[in-house]
From TrEMBL:
It is an enzyme of class 3 (hydrolase). The keyword Hydrolase applies. It comes from the Eukaryota. This is RNA helicase. PROSITE patterns: HELICASE_CTER. One of its GO terms (biological process) is mitochondrial RNA 3'-end processing. Residues 182-307 form the Helicase C-terminal domain. The keyword S-adenosyl-L-methionine does not apply. One of its GO terms (cellular component) is mitochondrial degradosome.
Length: 307
């Protein structure tokens, strides 16, 4: 009966991960807005560690880390809900892993773990995955990256694990300016513009209208395979390519490196799902709007002054 009571007690989630509780973890919070270099600094530690795991919000980001790590000479495997790729071979798993946060292993020890977009702890649909990763990762160092507003929640969670948070604050590396007027017409779209839509129908309609004006368009949305997204991003980023316009969903708001001059919101109404699993439409949050808008003016790109 005592054992049954113990496994039925859901009041202390930290205790669901005894392997993580048996080690002394160092929690480092890299806090800052978009384009501040916070994830870059965490990833430098990941690349130089003896072993590591990157936990990202998107297949696209995990795939990007997989390719970059292997290019830099750090063998890295890729694990998402749809595929697995190997940095060395199927018979010899690499000591580094890039994965979507839902696929994070809480049974494998690492020297360094990086959890990206930690503010998604509060997300009604996916927050469980960030909570599980943060509480359960068996890593000497856990680097979390995200908005500074997540600090208080992280500190409260760490009170339940007897851990402390070491904070590094970062400032935005480039300027971001709000324009005084709306775009009004797609005739006014310029090179380096990214039009953000929240439905596939809008993406299709907007991209078709821009192409009808004789301009080539790169398209990124959640349903595309990671390889296709990366190819579209590479085409848009290439200064020598004729494609200078992008139409995308808010998937671009999470860390993908894009050379965007200006972010234009086609709409600020987004289909969502409430806690009961029911579909709704709602205005995007200020935090989400800033996250997306912050993709403009990327550091060390041709458009460093974002709009």
């Amino acid at each position: 009966m005592d054992d049954l009571k113990k496994i039925s007690d859901l009041r202390t989630p930290a205790n669901w991960y005894p392997n993580a509780r048996t080690i002394t973890r160092k929690i480092i919070f890299h806090a800052g807005p978009t384009n501040s270099g916070k994830t870059y600094h965490a990833m430098q530690r990941f690349l130089t560690a003896k072993s590591g795991v990157y936990c990202g919000p998107l297949k696209l980001l995990a795939t990007e880390v997989f390719y970059k790590a292997n290019e830099k000479g750090t063998p890295c495997d890729l694990i998402t809900g749809e595929e697995r790729k190997f940095g060395i071979s199927e018979d010899k798993p690499a000591s580094h892993v890039a994965c979507t946060v839902e696929m994070t292993s809480v049974n494998t020890p690492y020297e360094v773990a990086v959890i990206d977009e930690i503010q998604l702890l509060k997300d009604p649909q996916r927050g469980w995955a960030w909570t599980r990763a943060f509480l359960g990762l068996i890593a000497d160092e856990v680097h979390v990256c995200g908005e500074a507003g997540s600090l208080e929640l992280l500190q409260k969670i760490c009170e339940t694990t007897n851990e402390t948070v070491e904070l590094f604050n970062y400032n935005r590396l480039t300027n971001l300016t709000i324009e005084d007027s709306a775009l009004v017409s797609l005739d006014n779209v310029l090179p380096g513009d990214c039009i953000v839509c929240f439905s596939k129908n809008d993406i299709y309609n907007v991209s078709r209208e821009i192409e009808a004006r004789g301009k080539e368009v790169a398209v990124i949305y959640g349903g595309l395979p990671p390889g296709t997204k990366l190819a579209q991003a590479a085409k848009f980023n290439d200064p020598d390519n004729s494609c200078k316009i992008m139409v995308a969903t808010d998937a671009i708001g999470m860390g993908l490196n894009l050379s965007i001059r200006r972010i234009i919101f086609y709409s600020i109404i987004k289909p969502t799902m409430n806690e009961k699993g029911e579909k709704e439409v709602d205005t995007i949050s200020v935090s989400n709007a800033l996250q997306i808008a912050g993709r403009a003016g990327r550091y060390k790109t041709q458009w460093e002054n974002g709009l």
